[in-house]
Amino acid sequence: MSSPGSPYPGLDLIATAVVLVGDGLRIRHVNSAAEHLFGLSGRNVVGHRVEEVFAEGASLVRALHYALSRNSGFTDHEFALSTGPEGSRLLSCTVTPVEAPGVAASLEFNPLDQPLRIVREEHTWLQSEANRELLRNLAHEIKNPLGGIRGAAQLLEHELARPSLKEYTQVVIKEADRLQQLMDRLLMPHRPSRVARVNLHEALERVRSLLLAEAPGTLKIRRDYDTSLPELEGDREQLIQAVLNIARNSAQALEGKGTIIFRTRVARGVTLAKRRRRLAIALEIIDDGPGIAPEIRERIFYPLVSGREAGTGLGLSIAQTFVGQHHGSIECDSRPGHTCFTVLLPLPDDV
Predict the structure, then answer these.
(1) What's this model's pTM, rounded to 2 decimal places?
(2) pLDDT tens by residue, 143-175
(3) What is the largest CA-CA distance in the chain?
(4) Which sequence spans correspond to the domains of the chain?
(5) CATH class label, 196-346
(6) How far is 157 from 173, CA to CA, in rounded Å?
(7) Is residue 288 a contact partner of residue 211, using CB atoms and an 8 Å limit?
(8) Domain 9-112 is in which class?
């Protein structure tokens, strides 16, 4: 998966994020793990000075000068760094002088929030599963009497002498149908998966066309695809539905006017469903909307939790269920003007 013609192909095979710096503190190489960690493209930043790429570049420059002046490596265990408006990541940063042609030092980064993320992800999953199980049981209990209510309303409608009274039975029938659809959505994620090789970009294009059809001319959906990504194993329809639910959530937050970005990258050495994965696909769905309200931010994947008055609160819950059935995970980072849902999906071991 290393870039064609990369002078340091071995660095793309390790899970640690590595940036090589040359003379004038200009970036010589960014490995795949660093591209994923900071959300950047190595091809676009090679040749740029460190402070031009990283928002907090001044502190990184000081660290490099310190290591190079003493010809000695060191590690800072609480280093805040970012490459743009997405916000800082808390990292451990190791600076090591290097004696190699054109390379002065290497920077190694490890996110300090990863163990916390894994614990939080597991807690959210368990809580969501408990909520979904409760709602599934309720849905089964509600479906039978709901059918009886609808049938009784139809029989009553045929017995009414005054046609104007049928307006009221129609209200009962239509509301019963609406509740029936809601119960079906609660039970939907539990059909058996149909696993096959899936091209994620083809699935994303399907989602893109559906969203643009719903908001013609007003919504912009930009693509930032890594076209070298291999196919993954999964249920194509479930994956389309999961992405559609997330992206539609973004479109609704934008009220159909704004920009959504679909970005794909390779992720290396990630832990998903308590298993270390050599390779995974990282899909980011980013919008520039108002952000998720703080009071529901920690509960957005729970069933029936919605930030919209007319929302059912099932879209993200179903998306998480489908992604979980593919041994993946969903994370969300949100603030006004920037909301990013990151979906991690493991790639087959034989890739």
Answers:
(1) 0.57
(2) 777 778 888 888 888 888 787 788 888 888 887
(3) 97
(4) 9-112, 115-190, 196-346
(5) alpha beta
(6) 10
(7) no
(8) alpha beta
